[in-house]
Design goal:
The structure is a homodimer.
Chain A (H helix, E strand, L loop, with lengths): L14 E6 L3 H13 L4 E7 L3 H5 L12 E3 L2 H5 L5 E4 L7 H10 L3 E4 L2 H17 L4 E2 L10 H8 L5 E7 L2 H11 L4 H10 L8 H4 L2 H15 L1 E2 L6 E2 L7 H9 L2 E12 L2 E12 L11 E8 L3 E8 L3 H16 L10 E2 L1 E3 L3 E2 L1 E7 L5 H11 L4 E5 L9 E7 L2 E2 H11 L10 E4 L9
Chain lengths: 433, 433
């Protein structure tokens, strides 16, 4: 395999860096660079809309007086900067700008998960053609070095499966609900704390985690997925009662992003799941992120830490900047396009809310047995009114698609007051001796 | 910073690899290479004593017929292999062989923690002079990519502290004891399972973990330590009663290797410690390894997984081989020699076994108050005979050296039937929101 090295950076000659976006992460990158004074890296330009407001902000005090502030992207593209750090997010107009930056000979460091999930492969090709770097360690799990850890440390394994808690907002909401709070209150708190947007859909409905799952699959399993083909399920349908039943099952509930390679087919899904309290997934509280990668030879490896926030994300960005400055490359292995299914063989948790009448359990168990799904347990707590009774059925492992067929007929029953909630249950497979 | 790239490996030209040592890990490396057939890596030589016995072993079936087997190291050193993989352990004669290999233009991949802890800096200099690789991802925590994760993913942070469970044997023993077994039985089991040597000292007394702690400190905190200067404390003094008292304190006991940079001084120690059940350290069971790295900007990052065993370790070795094959380098930051102290400011757990008489508690508390150490709790369980009474005192945070001064006088009391056991208690500092 031939890999030519980019022109080496001369001794005492730092790479010149432009930041695109001077929000929370951008300010933190400036602060980390100012605190550590890496001789290899010099911040020279900052681009932002309404740049004057940014230049007079508190965060700007960490920025050297010699830095050029601009709201004109062409100033950056025509400058002599060596690396563009993109911290703005979204596909447009950022994708076009970064293509131009690469063509102009500038390496790119980005924290933009949507961009990398949807356009990463195309951008990487342009970067390779120009012998430049395109690094995105900050795009998944902020300060948790899961991307560099997998790229260099697990390339010798055959990773077959990964699962992660990669959206801090959902984890904050669900771990607060685990402790007793209700969804609406916690979402409001999350919005006030700045963890959730005013439109929380990207987080709670799984779009953010899905982009990250696609990036992780590419790096861990060398599999290119179409993000839009990956099934997502919202966490907004989870209620207090589900945590209560989960606890009876020695589980809690987390938004889990998981992917499993089965021959040429990738099973992938972002959804709230029941996770055993004994599983690493249940360790993760608040805005923490966690990724569990399972290799054929190495077994389960767990990465966890602060997945969001300015400074943890800045650590990933600055680490990437040092890699560009020292022209460090990681192992490249061929990536293949993989078809995706959301179907998983798993035990399922089914929560019904019914106007109780004789024969309901029999009808549900009949519908399940008709598709060949075995009931593992039936949980019905005391203290709920008969006319609005929540109860839970768990199944032995079967395909999600099988369960969905059974639920389609059950959901049409008159006594069903809500759409039944169907969650996959995570099984702990790799136990230490 | 100038870094010249080694002559690039031509397309379709694999690096030629020699294995030194064909034991458990060597056999696994051969198996992983055979299973994955990386086009960049070709196993060509195997060195071992009594090579004929190895060549006819079950593990040798994964080895291609074209591979040269030898018990003569000069055959390897004079061959055209590009990389020598050292899986033998110890300083002699391995160090001399690897120096010769580097001088002969061969890169080195090793799993040898003692060699890297004691001689790593010297060997790295020779490697750099010859523009070769010296990689040792397998030297700490086997298949857990803590070394590559820190090298590339945390280089942008300022790591101030790390703690780890890096000896699988001790973790197996202590987590079995946590579940009720006694030390002697578990040690015997560990020996029969091949987790512990017939002389278990390297593991249970902390020598193995100490070497790994020095390597982690070098990579995470750019601090070069003299391994012999790092304090170690055996786990063999831990008894069932300690787990029982630990549980009352919402803790368990683990062999913890920790280092904390305080200005120019490194606090470092390998010792059994009380760790809160709520701490990631308590998650680690059996032979699992775990490392928690704390950065000024990124907070706590946790790595965990299978730290030992042939195949997990082989993943680290093969990942390093791919890095050599593709000439991938990691970020280099200047390393500084640091003085070491074993002193930590921490709460302490003190367990006494006494022939009970009035005035003992008063004497102990007097000795502690004389040095300015405050008692936090006093635990005395029912059901033990008065003439051989175990009880526990915990202190508020104070320096270990202070406690040791108090214990020196207490230990001389006639009623003391055993040397008091003194364990530091780990505090959980970085909590997720």
């Amino acid at each position: 395999m031939t890999t030519k090295r980019k022109k080496s950076v001369g001794a005492n000659k730092a790479v010149k860096v432009a930041l695109l976006g001077f929000g929370t992460v951008g300010g933190s990158v400036a602060r980390v660079l100012a605190a550590s004074r890496f001789p290899d890296v010099q911040l020279t330009h900052i681009f932002n809309r309404n740049v004057d407001r940014k230049r007079s902000s508190e965060a700007a005090k960490a920025v050297s007086a010699s830095v050029v502030w601009t709201d004109n992207i062409d100033v950056i593209l025509r400058s002599d900067v060596d690396v563009v750090v993109e911290l703005m997010g979204g596909l447009n107009p950022v994708e076009g700008w970064l293509r131009k930056a690469l063509v102009a000979g500038k390496s790119v460091v980005t924290a933009n998960k949507q961009l990398i999930a949807y356009r990463g492969t195309g951008l990487a090709k342009i970067a390779a053609q120009h012998n430049l770097h395109l690094l995105h360690g900050a795009a998944v799990a902020g300060g948790v070095p899961v991307i560099p850890g997998m790229l260099q440390g697990l390339c010798g394994d055959q990773v077959t499966r990964l699962s992660g808690i990669v959206n801090g907002t959902c984890n904050y909401i669900l771990s607060r609900m685990e402790a007793g709070a209700d969804y609406a209150t916690v979402l409001e708190d999350a919005q006030q704390l700045g963890y959730a947007e005013s439109d929380p859909s990207a987080d709670v409905d799984g779009y953010d985690a899905r982009a990250k799952l696609c990036i992780l699959s590419r790096i861990a399993m060398h599999a290119e997925l179409d993000p839009d083909a990956v099934a997502i399920q919202t966490i907004s349908a989870i209620e207090a009662i589900d945590f209560s039943y989960a606890k009876e099952l020695n589980c809690t509930i987390r938004q889990v992003s998981r992917a499993e390679l089965d021959g040429k087919l990738m099973h992938a899904r972002v959804a709230p799941m029941l996770v055993p309290l004994a599983s690493p997934m249940a360790w993760s509280h608040g805005t923490q992120n966690m990724v569990v990668v399972s290799g054929r030879f190495g077994g389960d490896v767990v990465f966890s830490g602060h997945g969001a926030g300015g400074e943890p994300t800045a650590v990933a960005v600055v680490s990437d900047l040092l890699a560009v400055a020292q022209d460090c490359r990681t192992v490249q292995l061929p990536v293949r396009r993989r078809e995706v299914t959301g179907d998983f063989l798993a035990p399922h948790y089914l929560r019904f809310v019914v106007d109780d009448k004789p024969g309901i359990v029999s009808a549900i168990s009949g519908a399940l047995s008709k598709v060949g799904a075995n009931i593992d347990s039936l949980l019905q707590r005391r203290g709920y009114p008969k006319h609005r009774l929540p109860f839970v059925v768990t199944t032995e492992p079967c395909l999600s698609s099988t369960i969905e067929r059974a639920l389609a007929s059950v959901a049409r029953m008159d006594c069903m007051l809500e759409k039944p909630l169907c969650l996959q249950m995570l099984e702990v497979e790799d136990k230490a001796e």
